[in-house]
Structure formats: structure tokens, C-alpha cells
Design a protein that fits this description.
amino-acid biosynthesis, Rossmann fold, 5-stranded mixed β-sheet, ProC C-terminal domain-like fold, 7 strands, alpha/beta, about 260 residues, two-stranded parallel sheet
Length: about 260
């Protein structure tokens, strides 16, 4: 995920020489240096002060660690941050209040909820600003992700819903492809052929949805001829309550995100 953010940032025009990254292992550091010419990469196993050195003098700092480590990281870099540095968190479920308590008072902080399609330039990222963030700082934070996807600004209370739809959403699409492939096998297709058909169909439909002005309902209706095969399939989905099932899954994901936030607070 973090490399996807980095690649998108560079693709959007930021010079590699203006970016410093930190990783845990020297092997990973060398890999990134080779892949992105001019990029400075510090490895923690070589320099225990790598994170401190990376944030000194930075205008934007992206914290890309797991939720359980984000508070400790905030504390460890707090003394090296400039008061104007915008801190951007990609850690799921950790609230702005929790992170602000671990950072210097007044530190600009933006919490984000990205998703894995950032890796292919088709990500969706929700952003919420802390109380000390200006409009210009929020725009700068959003620009970090625009090279790899679409950004939306939402109140923090909506981030759990964003997580349930776009954060977890890629897994729903992959789950659909799995189910379609399994259905094909049950109908007599070779498993490898069924997987190819399911995978390419879901990917192709996603590409159509990515076109400007695409409306999923209109696209569905265009494929659904009256009294045809697709209409019969959609009717079976509706009878089984598929829309309600999807809504229940999204609700469960949002509730779990809220639970994690409480656990980590």
C-alpha cells in the first residue's frame, strides 16, 4: 500500500529527490532505491533514528504502519516535527483524537482510508482533517494520493462507512469473482476456464464503471434484456436478498472498524 502511494506521488510529478522513505530492512531499502532513481530510503536496521531523520524539515509526513503501531510512531517522531508539518495517517481505525494526543499540540493531522487498488492507479481514498488543518494543508494531503486514485473529503464520523465500502470493497469484488468461478465449475466448465472468465468479466466490468459518468444501474440495465437470461439471474439474486446481504456485510465491517477504534483508543 505504501509503495502504491509513493508510486502515485511520483507519477503525479513529485521529484524522487524530494522524498525520503523509511523501511525496516536494508534489503528493502536497496530495492526501492533501485526502482525509484533519486529516492532517499533509510533502513531502521541500519539507523535507529531513520524515522526521526526522515521527518526533519518535511512539509508532509505519511505514516504507513499498522494500527497497533501508529501511536508509538507518532510519539517517536513528535520532537522532530515542524509545527507546520502535515502528518498523514493511513492506519485504519485509529482516530484523529488518539493520534493528536500523541503528537505536539496543534500539529496538523489528516486521517485517511485508502484501498489496495492504489497499486494499479485506481484507488479510492477518504480523507478527514484534524482540527488544526487548513484548507491548503488538506489539499496538499489529498494531492499525495491523486496520482494513484480518487480522493474524497469526509467528516471523520463517516470514515468507518468509507472503510466498509471502499476500504474493504475490493475484497467484495474478489469474493464475487470467486463465487462466479465456482458457479461456472458447477455448470460444467473447467476450473481454470471458469476462473479466467470470472476474473476478466469482473475486471472488464470495473473498467466500464471507471469511465466518466458511468452509472452502475444504467450499465446493468443495458445488459439485462427483458425476459432474457440476465434478467432471470438478477431476479434470483433479488429473491435471495443479495442487496440486503451486501448491506449487512458493509454494516458489519463498519461496526468492526468502530470496535477497533475503541480498542486502540
Amino acid at each position: 500500500m505504501n509503495e502504491a502511494v509513493l508510486a502515485g506521488l511520483l507519477a503525479a510529478g513529485t521529484a524522487a529527490a524530494d522524498v525520503t522513505a523509511t523501511v525496516r530492512r536494508s534489503e528493502r531499502a536497496q530495492e526501492l532505491r533501485s526502482r525509484y532513481e533519486g529516492l532517499t530510503v533509510l533502513a531502521e536496521n541500519e539507523d535507529a533514528q531513520a524515522n526521526i531523520k526522515a521527518v526533519e524539515g518535511a512539509a508532509l509526513v505519511v505514516l504507513g504502519v499498522k494500527p497497533v503501531g501508529i501511536v508509538d510512531l507518532c510519539r517517536s517522531i513528535a520532537s522532530a516535527l515542524s509545527p507546520q508539518t502535515v502528518v498523514i495517517s493511513v492506519a485504519a481505525a485509529v482516530t484523529i483524537a488518539t493520534m493528536e494526543a500523541a503528537l505536539p499540540e496543534g500539529q496538523p493531522l489528516v486521517r485517511t482510508m485508502p484501498n489496495t487498488p492504489l497499486k494499479v492507479g485506481r484507488g479510492a481514498v477518504g480523507l478527514s482533517a484534524g482540527s488544526n488543518v487548513t484548507e491548503d494543508q488538506l489539499a496538499a494531503a489529498a494531492a499525495v494520493f491523486t496520482g494513484a486514485g480518487t480522493t474524497v473529503i469526509v467528516p471523520e464520523e463517516n470514515l468507518d462507512a468509507v472503510s466498509a465500502i471502499s476500504g474493504s470493497g475490493p475484497a467484495y469484488a474478489f469474493y464475487l469473482a470467486e463465487a462466479m468461478a465456482q458457479a461456472g465449475v458447477k455448470l460444467g466448465l473447467d476450473p481454470e476456464l471458469a476462473m479466467v472468465l470470472a476474473r476478466e468479466t469482473v475486471a472488464g466490468a470495473g473498467a466500464m464503471l471507471a469511465q466518466d459518468g458511468a452509472d452502475p444501474a444504467a450499465l446493468r440495465k443495458a445488459v439485462t434484456s427483458p425476459n432474457g437470461t440476465t434478467e432471470r439471474a438478477i431476479a434470483a439474486f433479488d429473491e435471495a436478498g443479495l442487496p440486503d446481504i451486501i448491506a449487512a456485510g458493509a454494516r458489519a465491517a463498519a461496526e468492526r472498524a468502530a470496535e477497533i477504534s475503541r480498542e486502540l483508543a
